[in-house]
């Protein structure tokens, strides 16, 4: 049983509606994060990831356009980058980087997760139904390729990721579709 409060000789019970009405003035001052801020944060995070990749010295050795046999599962650039395509691409890169177990890519993988969250915020601001993208479905079968060439996979993946991120950065200014 709730404690009763006496106000001017009257007994008063404050139910959920009363509590809500009491909080209403505070709730009305809460503002949503402006979408421009989310877009700016997304661009800043992309630039940060590109800088992290640049700081890894061995990634400068390979062009992102160079074809490497056996590493065709690592995505390249796409002509049309919608928000859902960006999320799918980042999910694949995140899956690849996580499987490498390299100290160089742990923070980049975490940054990709945060970047995907920001893309989901951008999508929701446009009322885009953006389901959480998954990585490669046949990724388990690539375990042998990854074990045989961890270094090459890391270099190619980071090089292509860097190019993809720079392309995403350019396309975010064009307000990509769903």
Automatic annotation (TrEMBL):
<comment type="similarity">
    <text>Belongs to the leptin family.</text>
</comment>
<dbReference type="GO" id="GO:0051897">
    <property type="term" value="P:positive regulation of phosphatidylinositol 3-kinase/protein kinase B signal transduction"/>
</dbReference>
<protein>
    <recommendedName>
        <fullName>Leptin</fullName>
    </recommendedName>
</protein>
<dbReference type="GO" id="GO:1900745">
    <property type="term" value="P:positive regulation of p38MAPK cascade"/>
</dbReference>
<dbReference type="GO" id="GO:0005615">
    <property type="term" value="C:extracellular space"/>
</dbReference>
<dbReference type="GO" id="GO:0032008">
    <property type="term" value="P:positive regulation of TOR signaling"/>
</dbReference>
<feature type="signal peptide">
    <location>
        <begin position="1"/>
        <end position="32"/>
    </location>
</feature>
<dbReference type="InterPro" id="IPR009079">
    <property type="entry name" value="4_helix_cytokine-like_core"/>
</dbReference>
<feature type="disulfide bond">
    <location>
        <begin position="128"/>
        <end position="178"/>
    </location>
</feature>
<keyword id="KW-1015">Disulfide bond</keyword>
<dbReference type="GO" id="GO:0006112">
    <property type="term" value="P:energy reserve metabolic process"/>
</dbReference>
<dbReference type="GO" id="GO:0038108">
    <property type="term" value="P:negative regulation of appetite by leptin-mediated signaling pathway"/>
</dbReference>
<dbReference type="GO" id="GO:0032868">
    <property type="term" value="P:response to insulin"/>
</dbReference>
<keyword id="KW-0964">Secreted</keyword>
<dbReference type="Pfam" id="PF02024">
    <property type="entry name" value="Leptin"/>
</dbReference>
<dbReference type="GO" id="GO:0005179">
    <property type="term" value="F:hormone activity"/>
</dbReference>
<dbReference type="GO" id="GO:0046427">
    <property type="term" value="P:positive regulation of receptor signaling pathway via JAK-STAT"/>
</dbReference>
<dbReference type="InterPro" id="IPR000065">
    <property type="entry name" value="Leptin"/>
</dbReference>
<keyword id="KW-0732">Signal</keyword>
<dbReference type="GO" id="GO:0006629">
    <property type="term" value="P:lipid metabolic process"/>
</dbReference>
<dbReference type="GO" id="GO:0051428">
    <property type="term" value="F:peptide hormone receptor binding"/>
</dbReference>
């Amino acid at each position: 049983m709730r404690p009763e409060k006496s106000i001017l000789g009257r007994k008063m019970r404050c139910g959920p509606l009363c509590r809500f009405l009491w909080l209403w003035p505070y709730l009305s001052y809460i503002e949503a994060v402006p979408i421009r801020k989310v877009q700016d944060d997304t661009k800043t995070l992309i630039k940060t990831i590109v800088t992290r990749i640049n700081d890894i010295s061995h990634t400068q050795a390979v062009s992102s356009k160079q074809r490497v046999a056996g590493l065709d599962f690592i995505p390249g650039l796409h002509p049309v980058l919608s928000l859902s395509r960006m999320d799918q691409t980042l999910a694949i890169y995140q899956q690849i980087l996580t499987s490498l177990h390299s100290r160089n890519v742990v923070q980049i993988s975490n940054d990709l997760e945060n970047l995907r969250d920001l893309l989901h915020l951008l999508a929701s601001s446009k009322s885009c139904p953006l389901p959480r993208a998954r990585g490669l479905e046949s990724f388990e079968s690539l375990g042998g390729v990854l074990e045989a060439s961890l270094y090459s996979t890391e270099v190619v993946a980071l090089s292509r990721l860097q190019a993809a991120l720079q392309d995403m950065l350019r396309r975010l200014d064009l307000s990509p579709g769903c």
